[in-house]
Amino acid sequence: EVWKAYHTPYFEDLYKIFGKASNCYDLHKDQFPSRLLMTFEKDEVLYAFTIGVGMFAMPNADSYYDDYESYARSEFAIALSADEQMEVFARIAGLCELPWKQMDCLADQHTLDMQLHDTSYCILLDDDHFADALALSIKKQGVHLTWIHPITQEEFKQTKDEQQKAVLLGKLIQEPHTR
Question: Distance (Å, rounded) from C-alpha 113 to C-alpha 111?
Answer without folding.
Answer: 7
